[in-house]
Specification:
The structure holds 2 protein chains of 2 kinds. Chain A is of the alpha/beta class. Chain A has one domain: P-loop containing nucleotide triphosphate hydrolases (Rossmann fold), CATH 3.40.50.300. Chain A has 8 helices and 12 strands. A 6-stranded mixed β-sheet of chain A has the order 6-9-10-3-11-12, with helices on both faces. In chain A, strands 2-1-4-5 form a 4-stranded antiparallel β-sheet. In chain A, strands 7-8 form a two-stranded antiparallel ribbon. The mean pLDDT of chain A is 93. Chain B is of the alpha/beta class. Chain B has 2 domains: 276 residues, no CATH class; 49 residues, no CATH class. Chain B contains 9 helices and 21 strands. In chain B, β2 and β3 form a beta hairpin. In chain B, α7 crosses α8 and α8 packs antiparallel against α9. The radius of gyration of chain B is 22 Å and the shape is globular. Classes of the chains: A alpha/beta, B alpha/beta. At the A-B interface, α2, β7 and α3 of A face α7 and α8 of B.
C-alpha cells in the first residue's frame, strides 16, 4: 500500500559490501516506506541474498561504502541482535537447526530479548504459552511444533512456516523475506503468503527477495526491483515481475546495461 | 618401521621407571596408613597389595594412559587421609538435594555420621557405613560382594582396595522399590598437607528391586588433593538401577575413579556420569552384563575449561545374548582443557542378538581446546547390531547469527547453543534440582 506521506522505514544509499574481499554489492539504492511491500528479483549471484544479510548484519559481510538508515538512524555499526530488537527481521532462506533447544524456549528467549530491549519485563512461561498458541494460527502450525528442537527434522515448508511464526511473534517494523517461497509446494506457499499478508499493516513494511514470480501472485508487491551485478537496475510495479516471467531477465538486463555501465 | 630412540633417553628411562615404582609404593603405604582395625579384611587387603606391587605407576607409554599424563602427581607428596575432627553442616550447603530420601557422607573417604541422614528409608532398605554394618545381619551379604567385581586387577582399584578406610553402603532388598533418590556424598576437605583419600561405595540392588543413586564428589578447595575412588554396583536379576555420578572436585584435585557395574539377567542399568571438576580426572567405567537380556544405558557429560583434563574410559562387556547397550558421551571443552574418551564395547561369541550403539560428541569452545577420542568395538559374535561414531565440532557461526538475528546477543546465543548441546544428556537426569544445577553450570561456562 503506497502512501507518499508515510514514514521512511528503510533508506539505503549507494551501499557497497564485500565477502572475503570480493565486492558483491556495488551501489544499492532503495527506499521503503511504512505500509509498502517490495519485491527484489534477480538471477542467482546478482547480490539479492547478500543484500538481505548485510541489512541484518551478518559478520561475514563487510559493508565498505554507502549508508543504511532504519527509521532515520544509521545502523551500520549495530550488532545483529540490536538491529533485530530495533525492528528488523530476516526470514532465512535456509533456517538453521538448533538441536537440543525446543522451539518454545527459543521463541520465548527471542521474545523476551525484544521485551528487555524495550525496557519491559520478561514475560513468564505461562503468559508466553498463551501468546504463542495464538500466533500459531497465523501459520496454521500444530502446537506439537513448539516442543520439537528448533527446525530439527522439519520439512522445508515447516521451516519456512516457522520463520513466519517468529515474524508473527516479534512483530518487526521491517521484514526481509529471503527466498521464503523457494522449495515450497503450493499449499505451503499459500499458508506462508497468507501469514505474511495477515501480518502486513500500514505501520510496517515487507521486502521479499525471490527469483520466482509465483510468490507475487499471493503477496502482491507495491514495487518490484530487479537486481543485477550488485545493483538495482530497474524498478517498476507488479507488471515488471510479469514481464520478467514471460520474457526472462536477458532483455531487461540488456536494456539497463548501458545505465549500469556509467 | 624402525624407530630410533636417542641414547640419552634410553639411559634415563630406568631411572624414571624406578621413580614411578617408588612413588607407587609410597602411595600404597600412605593409603594403607590409617586402615581401621575393624575393617582389616586381611586376605582382601593382602591380595590387593600384591596386585599393586606387580605394577608401576602408569605413564604415557601405557596404552591405557596414552593421552592422560599422570606425571604431575609424582611431584606431590600425598599424606594419608585423616578426617578433620569438626565439620559443620555448612560444608554440605552446595550438595543438598531436596529430593533425596537418604544421604550418606564420606569425608576424605571416612564415614561422617553427623552429616549423614539415613533414618527415613523404607523397611529393609539400608544405607550406612560398612564399618557399622559388617558385623550385623547384612554383614555376610556385604563381605561376599565387597571387592569381587571384575576389573579389580587395575592398579588404582587395587590401591583403593588395599587402603579404603570405610565404605558407603546402599542395600535394596529383593523386590523393594525406592521411589526417591539416595545420595552418596564424597566430601573432600583440605588439611595442611595434600592428602590421598580412598573413598569406596557398595551398591546392591537385589533381584526385582528399583533404586536411584546419586554420587556426588564435591570439593570446595583448590589445594593439591587426590581422590582414588571405587564404586561397585550390583544390579541383580531384573533389578532397575539409575545412577547419577557427579564429579565436581576442587581445582587442585587428581580424581581417579572406578565404577564397576555387574548386571544380572533382565536387569536395567542407566548411568549419567557428569564430569565438571578436578585438575585431572580419570573415570574408569566398566559394565559387565552377567546374564541374558540386560539393558545398559550410559549417558555421559563432561564440561571442562582452563587447563583441566578429563578422561573417560568405558567398557561395556556384553557377555550374553539379547543384551542392549546405548552409550552417548558428550564433552564441552573450553580454554586449553583436554578431554579424552575411550569407549570399548566387547561382544564375545556368546553375545548373539545383541544391540549396541555408542556415540561420542565433542564441542570445542576454544582454538586451544583438545580432545582425543577412541571408540573400540571388539565384536566376535556374528549376529549383532553395533553402531559407533565420534564427532568433534565448534559452535557454528551461522547458528549464532541466526539466534542474533532474533534479538539474542552473541553471548546468550552461544549459551543457548551450549545448552542445546548438553540437554540431551542433562534431560535424562530424573531429579529436578540436579537438572537445574547442571543447566546453570553448563550454560555459565560459556562466557
Amino acid at each position: 500500500m503506497i502512501n507518499e506521506n508515510s514514514e521512511v522505514i528503510l533508506s539505503v544509499r549507494d551501499l557497497h559490501a564485500t565477502v572475503d574481499g570480493t565486492e558483491i554489492l556495488k551501489g544499492v539504492n532503495l527506499e521503503v516506506k511504512a505500509g509498502e511491500i517490495h519485491a527484489i528479483m534477480g538471477l542467482n549471484g546478482s547480490g539479492k541474498s547478500t543484500f538481505s544479510k548485510v541489512l541484518a548484519g551478518h559478520p561475514d559481510y563487510e559493508m565498505t561504502g554507502g549508508e543504511i538508515k532504519f527509521k532515520g538512524a544509521d545502523i551500520a555499526e549495530l550488532e545483529p541482535h540490536e538491529r533485530a530488537t530495533a525492528g528488523i527481521f530476516l526470514a532465512f532462506q535456509y533456517p538453521l537447526e538448533i538441536p537440543g533447544v525446543s522451539n518454545r524456549d527459543f521463541l520465548r528467549v527471542a521474545f523476551n530479548a525484544h521485551r528487555k530491549s524495550q525496557g519491559e519485563e520478561e514475560m513468564d512461561v505461562f503468559d508466553f504459552d498463551d501468546l504463542i498458541e495464538e500466533k500459531l494460527d497465523v501459520v496454521k502450525m500444530d502446537a506439537a511444533f513448539l516442543d520439537r528442537s528448533v527446525n530439527e527434522g522439519f520439512s522445508g515448508g515447516e521451516k519456512k512456516r516457522n520463520e513466519i511464526l517468529q515474524m508473527a511473534l516479534l512483530e518487526p517494523t521491517l521484514s526481509i523475506l529471503d527466498e521464503t517461497d523457494s522449495g515450497l509446494d503450493i499449499d505451503a506457499l499459500k499458508t506462508v503468503a497468507g501469514g505474511v499478508n495477515q501480518l502486513a499493516n500500514p505501520g510496517n513494511a515487507v521486502v521479499m527477495i525471490t527469483h520466482y514470480q509465483r510468490l507475487l501472485n499471493y503477496i502482491v508487491p507495491d514495487y518490484v526491483h530487479v537486481m543485477a551485478d550488485g545493483r538495482i537496475i530497474t524498478t517498476g510495479g507488479k507488471e515488471l515481475a510479469e514481464r520478467l516471467e514471460s520474457e526472462g531477465y536477458e532483455d531487461i538486463m540488456a536494456e539497463h546495461k548501458a545505465e549500469v555501465a556509467v | 618401521m624402525a624407530i630410533q630412540v636417542p641414547n640419552s633417553e634410553t639411559a634415563t628411562q630406568p631411572t624414571k621407571r624406578e621413580q614411578r615404582e617408588a612413588y607407587l609404593k609410597s602411595l600404597l603405604s600412605t593409603a594403607q596408613a590409617n586402615v581401621p582395625d575393624t575393617l582389616a579384611f586381611a586376605d582382601l587387603r593382602a591380595k590387593a597389595e600384591a596386585i599393586v606391587n606387580e605394577h608401576t605407576f602408569p605413564s604415557n607409554r601405557d596404552e591405557d594412559w596414552r593421552f592422560t599424563d599422570l606425571s604431575p602427581m609424582l611431584a606431590v607428596p600425598f599424606q594419608a587421609a585423616e578426617s578433620p575432627a569438626e565439620i559443620d553442616m555448612g560444608a554440605l550447603g552446595p550438595v543438598q538435594m531436596p529430593e533425596a530420601i537418604a544421604r550418606i557422607v564420606l569425608v576424605n573417604g571416612q564415614y561422617n555420621a553427623t552429616l549423614s541422614d539415613v533414618d527415613k528409608l523404607p523397611t529393609g532398605v539400608v544405607v550406612g557405613s560398612l564399618a557399622s554394618l559388617k558385623d550385623g545381619a547384612l554383614g555376610e551379604t556385604l563381605t561376599a560382594r565387597l571387592a569381587t567385581s571384575n576389573g579389580g586387577h587395575e592398579v588404582f582399584t587395587a590401591l583403593n582396595t588395599a587402603g579404603f578406610q570405610d565404605a558407603a553402603v546402599v542395600y535394596v532388598p529383593r523386590n523393594q522399590v525406592v521411589e526417591q533418590p539416595i545420595q552418596v556424598v564424597y566430601l573432600s576437605v583440605a588439611r595442611g598437607e595434600p592428602i590421598i583419600a580412598s573413598p569406596r561405595c557398595l551398591v546392591i540392588a537385589e533381584s526385582g528391586s528399583a533404586v536411584t543413586v546419586v554420587e556426588d564428589f564435591f570439593g570446595a578447595h583448590d589445594r593439591d588433593h587426590c581422590n582414588n575412588s571405587v564404586t561397585e554396583v550390583w544390579a541383580d536379576d531384573n533389578a532397575q538401577v539409575t545412577h547419577v555420578r557427579l564429579q565436581r572436585e576442587g581445582a587442585g584435585t587428581f580424581h581417579i575413579g572406578k565404577t564397576a557395574i555387574t548386571q544380572g539377567r533382565d536387569s536395567r542399568y542407566t548411568m549419567i556420569p557428569v564430569t565438571l571438576g578436578a585438575r585431572l580426572s580419570r573415570h574408569n567405567l566398566e559394565v559387565y552384563q552377567n546374564g541374558p537380556q540386560t539393558d545398559t544405558n550410559l549417558y555421559g557429560l563432561t564440561a571442562i575449561a582452563q587447563s583441566q583434563l578429563a578422561d573417560t574410559h568405558s567398557l561395556i562387556a556384553m557377555n550374553h545374548p539379547h543384551g542392549t547397550a546405548d552409550q552417548l558421551h558428550k564433552a564441552i571443552i573450553d580454554d586449553s582443557a583436554h578431554a579424552v574418551f575411550n569407549g570399548r564395547v566387547w561382544v564375545p561369541r556368546d553375545a548373539q542378538l545383541t544391540n549396541a550403539s555408542q556415540l561420542n560428541r565433542n564441542l570445542l569452545l576454544s582454538g586451544k581446546a583438545r580432545v582425543d577420542t577412541k571408540p573400540e568395538l571388539d565384536i566376535v559374535a556374528d549376529n549383532v547390531k553395533c553402531a559407533h561414531g565420534a564427532t568433534v565440532s565448534q559452535l557454528d557461526a551461522n547458528e549464532v547469527f541466526y539466534l542474533q538475528s532474533r534479538g539474542i546477543d552473541a553471548e546468550a546465543a552461544q549459551r543457548l547453543l551450549i545448552y542445546g548441546f548438553a540437554m540431551d544428556v542433562v534431560d535424562r537426569i530424573p531429579i529436578p534440582s540436579l537438572k537445574q544445577l547442571l543447566t546453570d553450570t553448563v550454560t555459565q561456562r560459556s562466557s
